[in-house]
Design a protein that fits this description.
Blueprint lengths: L9 H9 L3 H20 L5 H22 L5 H27 L14 H9 L2 H9 L2 H12 L4 H8 L3 H19 L1
Length: 183
Amino acid sequence: MRRTLESLDEGELLRLTARGDRRAFDELYRRTAPWLAVRLRRRCADEDVVADVLQETYLAVWRSAGGQAHSSAQGSALGWLWTIAAHRLVDAFRSRARRSRVPVVETVESVAPAAEEEVMAGRIDADLERALLALPPELRQVLRAMVLDGLTVRETSLLLGMPEGTVKTRARRARIALREALS
């Protein structure tokens, strides 16, 4: 019995995409683009930039899915998508900063936690969760970019529109606060 595309997980869709299956790519896009757009909008309020980054991300997925096709876990397929999108967003900020030489990011704090944050919270110890939630928003924001999104100090600086030194200071303050809260 042949399974339908709707019944496949993202990792399986990615493997089919790597073999040039346009229908699998369309299903992967249909399923993941809304989630990816929400994550991008949390980091950039400019809809044109978000649309460009989405387009560039899925173009990169179509071109390079074969390199990721060995992955069998759904989570790694989504993580791979987010890594591409986050790097494309940083590239867009760099390009924009070179053109305008003004701050390029409007930070939007959401009122509801993102789904991935809820999943992460379910996987971590309750003490760590309380310590993370006790951090000031500006420290959590830096941790989210550097730890959850896996960005470098420079990429975080561009993403959040703050100097690299500020990113380093906030990351250090967050680590110290977490260490103290957990000891």
